[in-house]
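User: Predict the structure for this protein chain, please.
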Amino acid sequence: MSLYQITSEMQGILEAVLDHGIDSPEAQEALNEHLSGLDEALDLSAERYCGFIRELEMRAEARSKEASRIRALAAADDALATRLKEGLKAAMETTGRLKMELPSFKLSIAASGGKQSLQIDDDAVKGLEVPLVKIVTEPNKEAIRIVLEAGGEIPGCRLLPRGTSLRIR
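Assistant: Here is the predicted structure, written as structure tokens:
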């Protein structure tokens, strides 16, 4: 019996009892016996669900660790390629060979395109006029939370209810 079927059947029985009541002790005993069977089925289903959930969590953790390991390997390969490229570039510049034609590759050292890099000293920002400065305003969530938790009100702000979660131990 599936978890959905068990839940639906238990809910249906409880609704029937609430709607019609139970007059005879025999009917009460039959109901208790039926509910007991459903409780056992629910226990079995919940046991299987928990086993499967635990297996999925363990698999996800293992895959996450493997993904981290592979990301670290990729980062190491990328860093090594960058260092080798910089070394080759330095050797070409030192020897004055800005272009090289090899059997499998063509190498050339060229100026980078795009916008030219910009450096702005912290002191320079203070003296800039309004069109040259971008002012960004964002809410201080921690300060707002403190006010709301203390019982204060801020228009458009509210604390949301905490959710619930199933804990399997």
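The chain is about 60% helix and 5% strand.
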